Amino acid sequence: MKTGWVKDNDKWYYLDGSADGSMKTGWFQEDNQWYYLDANQGGAMVTGQVTIGGQQESFDENGHWISVNKYVAEAKKYLGVPYVWGGATPSGFDCSGFISYVYKVARQDAAGFYNSAQKISNPQPGDLVFFKNTYKNGISHIGIVVGDGRMIHAGDKGIEYSNLNSSYNQQHFAGYGRLK
């Protein structure tokens, strides 16, 4: 019996090689990549955003699981980098340039990220947090949720941690989002 990936009707499945020819379902790791094979879809590999066990998960177009914590780990590498208006490199970041660099997505301002993000109410580490009316009207600042009531962002002093529950952040809080 064959073991490995097979494609059928534009969906990928993993045959486990057992005598009955069954397909794997659930979480599956191969070559240091995690996949989720959805039993509700006959064992098809998932892509995009899916809820698994009450938790929102992300998978790229190849079915590789994208851990949001990888964004937190990447963001932490730049702690202490100075704030530079319009900056989007490790020599200096502004808030949206920092997000663009860490997530490796096209540059846009905080309002653009807000408009393109999926709005969520239960943020996980690696999700985005948005603020309004900080230096201009509307969505004007963005950070990355790290957990424990904190975010990492390009603040006045550069890339730093801030308390999401500070009076200033609570006053300007606009919501949470996840990049699609």
TrEMBL record:
GO terms for molecular function: cysteine-type peptidase activity. InterPro entries: Cell_wall/Cho-bd_repeat, NLP_P60_dom, Papain-like_cys_pep_sf, Peptidase_C40. Residues 65-180 form the NlpC/P60 domain. Keywords: Hydrolase, Protease, Repeat, Thiol protease. GO terms for biological process: proteolysis. The keyword Transmembrane helix does not apply. It comes from the Bacteria. Cell wall-binding repeats lie at residues 2-21, 24-43. The keyword Transferase does not apply. Pfam families: Choline_bind_3 (PF19127), NLPC_P60 (PF00877). Belongs to the peptidase C40 family. This is NlpC/P60 domain-containing protein. The lineage of its organism: Bacteria, Bacillati, Bacillota, Bacilli, Bacillales.
